[in-house]
Design a protein that fits this description.
The chain has helices at residues 2-14, 18-31, 60-68, 76-83, 99-107, 139-172, 178-188, 193-200, 204-218, 223-232, and strands at residues 36-42, 52-56, 88-89, 112-119, 125-132. The protein is an alpha+beta fold. The protein has a five-stranded antiparallel sheet with strand order 2-1-5-4-3, sandwiched between helices. The radius of gyration is 21 Å and the shape is elongated.
Amino acid sequence: MNSWAEDLLTALENAQTQQGVFATIERAARALGFEQCAYGLRSPIPLSNPRVIMFNNYPTGWQQRYTQAGYLETDPTVRHCRKSQSPLIWSDQVFASAKEFWADAQSFGLKIGWAQSSLDAYGGGGMLTLCRSSEPLSKAELDDKQMKMHWLANVAHTAMTRATARAWCDEDQRPLTRKETDILKWCADGKTSGEIAEIMSISINTVNFHLKNASGKLRTANKTAAVVRAAMLGLLS
């Protein structure tokens, strides 16, 4: 376990993009005996409509069917993972309320599966799914592999969150300055522009100027949204 975990952690740390992280997850899934895998990341921002990012190597036909049928809203495994971080093993009972979904999935060879969610301190959530077309998960196999599966779910979430934050920062192409970051931190602590001006020994107009620039770089409408986005992206740490 130690060598496997260290090798996986190193590979994920070296993966700089979302695609690179998922490629590492794919290799780990195959090593654990699974043909397919999926990783979904639910960003905590924007708060009114959190962004969902999904990666998988499922058959193209199933990907199209999943999207067209709107299965993301009815998928029992997704519902479970939104409420619990306990691992879930696919079964007829799990899909009892979604028989059409289950029949469709099985028709594409997705018959045996395991899923687990992960949450982070910023309110983001991730979900790892491992699946294959045959050979049910036995107790012996779970006893042997489940600790590695848990580890994969957790480190995958950390790596995908980091890669996603990097991608969003790269989209902006304009990093926050030290002064912009400091002002956003004071805003996060509830300070007004006047109070920040006094603390930093600058004018209120200068504070508001930096807030406007920060909001523009973060593509937000006002300082409140800028503070939230910057915090969620780890830019205020």
